[in-house]
Structure to design on (167 residues):
């Protein structure tokens, strides 16, 4: 796998006309300061495949989303994986956090923090109910070619996948 994120190093990317700096923060210390922006997981099924989801069948990502009410990091993870991938989280390991700082644009100075997990999941019948309309199972080594994310975030996504495949 090409370049993977180094702890604390910031990687620049653009999203919705704004410039952000994102960094990988390992677990174990305190949670990075910022607005809690939810949880996401590299979702693995027993036969060495990864679950990807899509709204349009063209751009693919890992299940992830924002907290509702007073959910903790794991509660958000469990609900989002169920809603978006129609899968039940059987076990999960917190791999780290991604901390994003907006440095240019309408949200300048906003800091968002998302928990990144590796999850073993059990698929349920595919019955999309929300914005996600497609689910795909991909071999571990093919995940990077399917993912869609802003240019500049490759190191974060590469580390997330690499850490997940170690667990």
């Amino acid at each position: 796998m090409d370049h993977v994120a180094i702890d604390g190093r910031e990687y620049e990317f653009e999203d919705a006309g704004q410039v952000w700096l994102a960094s990988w923060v390992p677990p174990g210390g305190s949670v990075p300061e910022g607005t809690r922006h939810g949880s996401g997981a590299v979702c693995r099924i027993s036969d060495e495949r990864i679950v990807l989801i899509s709204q349009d069948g063209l751009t693919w990502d890992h299940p992830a989303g924002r907290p509702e009410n007073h959910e903790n990091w794991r509660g958000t993870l469990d609900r989002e994986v169920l809603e978006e991938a129609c899968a039940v989280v059987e076990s999960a390991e917190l791999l780290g956090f991604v901390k994003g700082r907006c440095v240019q644009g309408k949200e300048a100075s906003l800091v968002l923090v998302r928990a990144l997990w590796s999850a073993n999941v059990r698929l349920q019948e595919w019955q999309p109910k929300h914005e996600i309309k497609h689910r795909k199972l991909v071999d571990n080594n093919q995940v990077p070619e399917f993912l869609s994310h802003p240019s500049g975030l490759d190191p974060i996504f590469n580390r997330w996948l690499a850490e997940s495949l170690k667990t």
In short: DSSP finds three helices and eight strands in the chain. The first strand starts at residue 10 and ends at 15. Helices lie at 73-85, 143-146, 154-166.
